[in-house]
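Figure 3 (text version): structure tokens given as input.
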């Protein structure tokens, strides 16, 4: 394969949003490598997804130590993509990785100890062939490790130059408040919080989003399409090759319930009235909120990614549209 050369017009259409009160701008749409970039996937296929992303101004690629399957293979594959040419643009890329979930056997390959985070980041850098990542996350709170230890490790990682910024993921509002306080003592700001947020999952709204805004921390919404549910793909059953059909997919068949599909059909009609696909509307709906720095999508094809990018063409909503969406969703139950 030839060495990749990026599209000269890559910055023409993307919108960049400030991450909290930091100096870092992130693209409104970022690409996550949780699925579709592992050793079970096809290299020549996903390298095109990565190139298409960067060619369209997606500067932010999100990974974690255990993305694959197999664990580590998404980072390895991303390292190969960098070597094939994307790495020539290293200073135009924001690459993140994380540690916090199960990664290797024994007592040091999981959760939030200093021992785990330090070793895991060294492994991630090796797999990707990088000297540093732009953002390193504590992937989840650890109820048994003092938050001082986990945040202390993040602060030291910054001082070692192995990450430029740090973030937290899956911390609730109370845990976030504590983590931010410890990082503040280390004079290391928390750049960003990565949380699950979509039309179908509103747990962040009552407490977390207001806290992040007040503290000047950015927010990146993961699974903004609810792993594909908020698209037109499951309207008539579970297609072959979809995430819900694959044995390696994290969306279980049981999660594609008739009740959800009933709502999704109605949302799909509302999207059509706006002249958008449901995927586009679901992403635009998140981006209407300034507190959401970026939506972190996954894509199993170039066509899906191109569809998702179109979300940026119509991001405004009328009061009537917002009300109609809330009515379909029956919101109060989704916020808990
Ligand atoms: N911090 C955390 O704990 C955490 C947890 C989960 C995810 N994340 C991050 O968030 C990223 C995104 O998560 P996600 O993959 O669940 O996001 P998502 O955007 O909600 O779902 C992506 C999946 O939806 C389907 N899809 C996407 N665009 C589509 C379109 N236009 N039309 C039809 N189907 C479409 C594809 O599934 P098919 O395979 O069915 O085609 C795709 O793989 C991850 O890669 C990861 O970086 C973080």
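Below: residues designed for each position.
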């Amino acid at each position: 394969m030839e060495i990749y050369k990026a599209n000269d017009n890559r910055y023409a259409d993307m919108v960049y949003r400030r991450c909290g009160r930091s100096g870092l701008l992130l693209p409104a749409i970022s690409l996550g490598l949780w699925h579709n970039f592992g050793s079970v996937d096809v290299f020549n296929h996903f390298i095109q997804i990565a190139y298409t992303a960067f060619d369209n101004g997606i500067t932010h690629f999100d990974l974690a130590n255990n993305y694959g399957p197999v664990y580590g293979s998404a980072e390895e594959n991303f390292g190969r993509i960098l070597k094939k040419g994307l790495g020539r643009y290293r200073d135009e890329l924001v690459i993140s990785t994380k540690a916090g979930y199960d990664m290797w056997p024994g007592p040091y390959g999981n959760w939030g100890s200093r021992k785990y985070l330090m070793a895991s980041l060294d492994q991630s850098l090796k797999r990707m062939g990088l000297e540093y990542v732009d953002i390193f996350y504590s992937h989840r709170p650890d109820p048994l490790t003092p938050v001082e230890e986990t945040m202390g490790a993040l602060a030291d990682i910054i001082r070692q130059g192995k990450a430029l910024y740090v973030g937290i993921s899956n911390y609730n509002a109370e845990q976030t408040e504590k983590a931010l306080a410890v990082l503040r003592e280390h004079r290391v700001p928390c750049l960003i919080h990565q949380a699950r947020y979509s039309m179908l999952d509103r747990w962040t709204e009552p407490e977390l989003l207001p806290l992040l805004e007040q503290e000047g921390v950015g927010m990146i919404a993961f699974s903004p399409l609810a792993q594909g549910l908020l698209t037109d793909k499951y309207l008539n059953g579970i297609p072959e090759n979809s995430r819900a059909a694959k044995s390696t997919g994290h969306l279980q068949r049981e999660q594609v319930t008739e009740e959800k599909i009933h709502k999704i059909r109605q949302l799909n009609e509302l999207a059509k009235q706006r002249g958008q696909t449901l995927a586009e509307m679901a992403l635009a709906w998140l981006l209407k909120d300034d507190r959401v720095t970026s939506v972190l999508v996954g894509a199993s094809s170039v066509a899906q990614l191109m569809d998702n990018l179109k979300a940026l063409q119509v991001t405004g909503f009328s009061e009537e549209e917002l009300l109609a969406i809330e009515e379909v969703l029956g919101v109060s139950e989704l916020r808990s």
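Residues 233 and 239 are 7 Å apart (CA to CA).
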